[in-house]
Amino acid sequence: MEVITVVGSGLIGRSWAMVFASGGYTVKIYDNQPGQSAKAITEIRKQLEELEEAHMLRGQLKASQQLNLISSHDDLAQALEGAFFVQECVFEQLEVKQSIFQDLERLVGNNVILSSSTSCLVPSSVFSKVHNKSRCLVSHPVNPPYYVKLVELVPHPETVMAVMDAAYALMTKVGQVPVRLKREIDGFAVNRVQAAIISESWRLVKDDVISVKDIDLVMSEGLGMRYAFIGPMETIHLNAPEGMEDYMKRYGEGITRLLNSFGPTPDFSGEEAKSVISEMLELIPNSQQHLSARKERRDLLLMSLAKLKKDH
């Protein structure tokens, strides 16, 4: 059986383990905190059984069969034995990731692909202390990866095309939807687009144009309805009688005018942020009880949407 090692047993690490096991791969989970990877498997068992009961389990194998493919390890060298692909999932601290990849490079052969789940650190920083950077890349999932299948594949400047191809093939095989970035850029693609949406949404609330509740409805009941199935480029291509070129002839000048009217980047932590945050807390208090309930609702809705997309 082909082996994939997941380094880090938090939410993203557990999700990756479940995704890889759903594709029939043997998965070894490593955590440097003794006993943590074993606890992760207990949580994974619970999730797999719930998914099976809800008929939302990914892959062709039963929950028990997938669970049998996953093992926990407190010893890194043991966890890496036989692996052809390593997915690092530790917290977003550059020095920690750099140190882990130094350890990984010492323990695996040159043909093993080293992948990071970082969401905001560029590959040239994450892998700066690795000697053989040609087999390194970022595989950035969208949270939660089990329900939201997109994964951004971001190369280091020295990453060879064969490694990008192999990662793309692996992600496709396990049911993810990979996209390739041609080069590294701060924030990758997902976070750059998300930041633009957050920035203008925040400005509109702060400038008393619209409420927090209503700006969220603009996305969830408006733009998001389309974007769940087609992206912004296809949206504009379909929104004019003769396609994208026609759309830009009709609306390009107006889009430019709007973009030029956008204000400066908001201050997300200063005094002006207090009213926006206060409005959000009136809708959903930041207690664990309320946040957990909304996250559970989010995941159930994403699960249902994933099923709908799969069936169509």
UniProtKB/TrEMBL annotation:
PANTHER family, alphabetized: 3-HYDROXYACYL-COA DEHYDROGENASE FAMILY PROTEIN, LAMBDA-CRYSTALLIN HOMOLOG
Sequence ranges assigned to domain 3-hydroxyacyl-CoA dehydrogenase NAD binding in this UniProt record: 4-182
Biological source species: Gouania willdenowi (Blunt-snouted clingfish)
GO terms, molecular function: L-gulonate 3-dehydrogenase activity; NAD+ binding
Pfam family, one: 3HCDH
Keywords per UniProt: Oxidoreductase
GO BP annotations listed: fatty acid metabolic process
Gene3D superfamilies in UniProt: N-(1-d-carboxylethyl)-l-norvaline Dehydrogenase, domain 2 (1.10.1040.10), NAD(P)-binding Rossmann-like Domain (3.40.50.720)
Gene from which this protein is expressed: cryl1
Coiled coil: none
Protein name stated in the entry: Crystallin, lambda 1
SUPFAM superfamilies, alphabetized: 6-phosphogluconate dehydrogenase C-terminal domain-like, NAD(P)-binding Rossmann-fold domains
Residue intervals of the 3-hydroxyacyl-CoA dehydrogenase C-terminal domain: 187-268
Family: Belongs to the 3-hydroxyacyl-CoA dehydrogenase family.
